[in-house]
Specification:
This protein is of the alpha+beta class. Helices cover 46% and strands 20% of the residues. It is elongated.
Length: 103
């Protein structure tokens, strides 16, 4: 899977967790509250380069509701790794030029 597919899987897990909490707690937060929870989750992405040259991307967010009773005590966590040797690094101009030539 590529980055965007992983992003969507992680986001779906978070929203599922959120929806389950809402149902279990008997809340009616409305559309706007769910949108805020989704935006907060999207801002939790962390990118690190590990000592062995691996890129680590993780999404980790605590439970949205303080009294969440799910077995996932820390909220949601999703992580992907990629070796730097499998990534092609380009200057922004060169990448834009290459992408335009491929269209």
């Amino acid at each position: 899977m590529n980055y965007f597919e992983h992003f969507n899987v992680a986001r779906a897990r978070w929203l599922k967790h959120y929806d389950e909490c809402v149902e279990e707690l008997g809340l009616d937060p409305g559309y706007e509250e769910r949108q805020w929870a989704d935006e907060a989750w999207q801002e939790c992405e962390e990118i690190k380069i590990l000592q062995d040259g691996t890129i680590k991307i993780k999404w980790e967010h605590p439970c949205w509701w303080a009294d969440c009773k799910h077995p996932v005590f820390f909220g949601e966590y999703y992580c992907i790794l990629a070796g730097l040797d499998s990534i092609m690094w380009e200057e922004p101009y060169d990448r834009a030029k290459r992408l335009m030539e491929n269209d």
